[in-house]
Amino acid sequence: MRLDKYLKVSRLIKRRTVANDACDAGRVMVNDKVVKASYDVKLGDVIEISFGNKSVKVKVTMIADSTKKEDAKEMFEYL
Predict the structure, then answer these.
(1) Cβ contacts of residue 20 below 8 Å, gap of 6+?
(2) CATH number at residue 59
(3) What is the structure's pLDDT at 9?
(4) Between the CA atoms of 43, 49, 18 and 26, what dihedral angle is there, to the nearest 10 degrees?
(5) pLDDT score, position 36
(6) What is the pLDDT of residues 22-48, one digit of tens each?
(7) What residue numbers bound the domain in which 55 lies?
(8) Does residue 21 carry a pLDDT above 90?
(9) In what residue span(s) does the RNA-binding S4 domain sit (predicted)?
(10) Rounded (5°) CA angle 77-29-64
């Protein structure tokens, strides 16, 4: 699954276009490397997103094409 879609489905970022813009700006890193929105997310990847002065670091635990709001939290775990 593409990184921008994963960020939207897991609800780490609200909209896919915002996720795409964040990737283009270099604010999203996977396994300590800056990646593009087209990066293919795999189980076990560590994603770090920089939001202004704070950053969020999560580990991918599940990949699904769509989820309910309650189940989205199971797609990752905070580090």
Answers:
(1) 4, 37
(2) 3.10.290.10
(3) 94
(4) -100
(5) 94
(6) 999 999 999 999 999 999 999 999 999
(7) 3-78
(8) yes
(9) 1-61
(10) 45
